[in-house]
Amino acid sequence: MACSPLGHQPPRCWGRSVPRVLKPLRARVPTRGRGERNRGLEDFSARLAAGPTLQHFLRNTSPPQETHPQLEEEPEPYLTSSILEEARRKVYLETYGCQMNVNDTEIAWAILRKSGYLRTHQLEEADVILLVTCSVREKAEQAIWNRLRHLTALKSKRLRSQAPLRIGILGCMAERLREEILHKEKLVDIVAGPDAYRDLPRLLAVAETGQQAANVLLSLDETYADVLPVQTSPDATSAFVSIMRGCDNMCSYCIVPFTRGRERSRPMASILREVKLLSDQGVKEVTLLGQNVNSFRDTSEVQFRSAAAPGLSRGFSTIYKAKEGGLRFAHLLDQASRVDPEMRIRFTSPHPKDFPDEVLQLIRERHNICKQLHLPAQSGSSRILEAMRRGYTREAYLELIQHVRDSIPGVSLSSDFIAGFCGETEDDHQQTVSLLRQVRYNVGFLFAYSMRQKTRAYHRLQDDVPAEVKRRRLEELISVFREEATRANGAMVGRSQLVLVEGPSKRSAAELCGRNDGNIRVIFPDTEMEDGTGSGAVVRAQPGDYVLVKVTSASSQTLKGVLLRRTTLRESAAHR
């Protein structure tokens, strides 16, 4: 339960809570007199004491999988209009980790903006600093601890004429390390887990009384379906759209099921509304987002609740029984790609087990679904894959790779790999090296294993590969990946690539950058080109334009080329 003077549990939350009452902090006194400040705190505490009851929460709780448009909500009784108007505090949001955290940042900001907060991109202007955190690896958490110590120094320099600076930790690290964050280091005022962003206004209201506040409850149905994320970069050409949250796979190394909870999918109708809105705003590429995105299963429509479960990829298995009913990922992908024929559709991160033929066929046939798949392997050793509880062997994975390439000619592949997992021998490592060479990925994400508390590996296995061995093996994997990716990307030299222009290159103002269909970065000179209408007019490429670029050189991460002309998705597809 989130700790507050009320002791009320917020709505729509089920799961574990922070049981202890958090020790109040000493409240700072701003420019108003101390007596006036104390009276203000007493008045605010009185409002909290007379705040929402259990009946209030029951009355305002939305049913699971709500599909209706968002309605205007009544203000919470403990957040009166005078309090909100007086506050108008500026919030600074800083994001760490994966794309899900980028989307979470947009959701958190949408909720705070509705409650009267202002956004600042200048740290020094902030009254509230919120870090959206990652807990997948120890290195990510250490970066947060270091940042918190820097922010604490900033907090101590706050002028007494200013309102106290409030610091909050959101996301996965908040759920995993709430006790340590709040009590051991005492660097933070509020803690909110991934399913508690709706509670941010209340938590910050409690923090204003000088107390720490936390809500890390995991939900069985929270998808923020009725919260329209506010894009952090309004002029961006691409956007993320969350379609599901949580994960049920329970891989032995992974903390995600413990920090983000069980799988639950957002109603398809709300997803399509958001995609349509982004299209109307001029966004040219949408990435459908989820921890296990292709296991999407919308059960909000009664007539589809008895639908049969799609089969798994050949040779793959799960630790749970097949889930019957619901609209599946293939249907969502089909409908999302129909919203705007000139908008690219991507999705991440999938699990290799959930690639039925209908999904592969749709990717092949639909011109605006990118011919790029992320197929996380994690290891090339069947023995290690079993220890990881991945549900497949090396042979089954390679069979899937071949089937994907047969089904989608020219597909671009990316993958994840872990070096030095529990019990990994040199032979296991060399099998991963050989898999990298055999598949020849275009893009790779490679990391040394970092054991996480709560995971099955933490309780059942030994982290017995020395750190220096992990580093050596990781370096070898990275070296082999780069070598093979350079060869894979080199096959595009001399060919034209359809590129979505993102903006100026970071390294040169005379160059532009964008990404091709395979999600590979493409760099090209910012020169005049044909406008694509056949009129002979020349223009310069702008962010959001589709252009044809002839590739002249390739590395493991980047293609370089010369600009040919502006085009469209449909025109480009017609000339393939």
Write a structural description.
Helices cover 34% and strands 19% of the residues. The chain is built from 18 helices and 23 strands. The strands form seven sheets. A six-stranded parallel β-sheet has the order 2-1-3-4-5-6, with helices on both faces. A five-stranded mixed beta barrel has the order 17-18-19-23-22. The protein has a three-stranded parallel β-sheet with strand order 7-10-13, with helices on both faces.
Protein topology:
Blueprint: H1 34-49, H2 54-60, H3 81-87, E1 90-95, H4 99-114, E2 118-119, E3 128-133, H5 138-156, E4 166-171, H6 172-176, H7 178-184, E5 190-192, H8 200-207, E6 213-215, E7 238-242, E8 244-245, H9 256-260, E9 264-265, H10 268-280, E10 285-289, E11 297-298, E12 327-328, H11 329-339, E13 344-348, H12 357-365, E14 372-374, H13 382-388, H14 394-407, E15 412-419, H15 426-439, E16 443-448, H16 456-460, H17 467-490, E17 496-504, E18 511-516, E19 521-525, E20 528-530, E21 538-540, E22 546-554, E23 558-567, H18 569-574
Parallel strand pairs: 1-2, 1-3, 3-4, 4-5, 5-6, 7-10, 10-13, 14-15, 15-16, 19-23
Antiparallel strand pairs: 8-9, 11-12, 17-18, 17-22, 18-19, 20-21, 22-23
Please describe the structure with a list of short key phrases separated by commas or semicolons.
disordered N terminus; 576 residues; six-stranded parallel β-sheet; globular; 34% helix; five-stranded mixed beta barrel; alpha/beta
- Roughly what fraction of the amino acids lie in strands? 15-25%
Give unreliable regions as ranges: 1-34, 62-73
- What's the average pLDDT? 86
Specify the helix fraction band. 25-40%
Radius of gyration equals: 25 Å
Label the overall shape. globular
Give the structural class: alpha/beta
Cofactor: [4Fe-4S] cluster
Keywords: 4Fe-4S, Iron, Iron-sulfur, Metal-binding, S-adenosyl-L-methionine
Domain TRAM: 490-565
GO biological process, one term: regulation of protein metabolic process
